[in-house]
Write a structure and sequence with these properties.
The chain is mainly α. 88% of the residues lie in helices and 0% in strands. It is built from 3 helices and no strands. The longest helix is centred in the middle third of the chain and has 71 residues. The chain is rod-shaped, with a radius of gyration of 36 Å. The two termini are 58 Å apart. The mean pLDDT is 78.
Length: 132
């Protein structure tokens, strides 16, 4: 049941991220087309070497680079949080391992004590004599 919820959550997350990426790409392309059309209609000085399509491409590249840096930083933060969580889990596992080792030693000592106690009881000792 929990696995189904995890799979559904992962699928929803995948669709969300895919939708965000597609929306951003189409938005950037639409903005680029609008800027190109605006610059083409307002600035018509081709003699001085101004080319509106080169300007739009450079502008869109800048926007995409900024978005890339934002996504890389967000991924870095997520990975850093994951590493911290894993380090905490490793420390907890070490503590659990030490605790389990101590419990194992205590149980072995109890088994040894019970064997010794049973052997003395079988040889005629009483409970009171054993602890004196």
């Amino acid at each position: 049941m929990k696995e189904e919820k995890d799979k559904k959550h992962e699928l929803k997350t995948f669709y969300l991220y895919t939708g965000i990426v597609i929306t951003v790409l189409f938005s950037v392309l639409l903005i680029g087309l609008l800027i190109y059309c605006y610059w083409k209609s307002k600035i018509t000085d081709e003699a001085v070497g101004y080319n509106p399509i080169n300007s739009v491409i450079a502008f869109l590249a800048l926007i995409l680079n900024i978005l890339t840096v934002i996504f890389v930083y967000a991924t870095y933060q997520t990975q850093r949080d994951t590493i911290k969580m894993q380090a905490k889990q490793i420390n907890d596992d070490k503590k659990d391992g030490e605790f389990n080792r101590v419990l194992d030693i205590v149980y072995k000592q109890l088994e040894h004590t019970i064997e010794k106690y049973n052997s003395k009881i079988n040889s005629g000792w009483t409970y009171k004599q054993y602890f004196e």
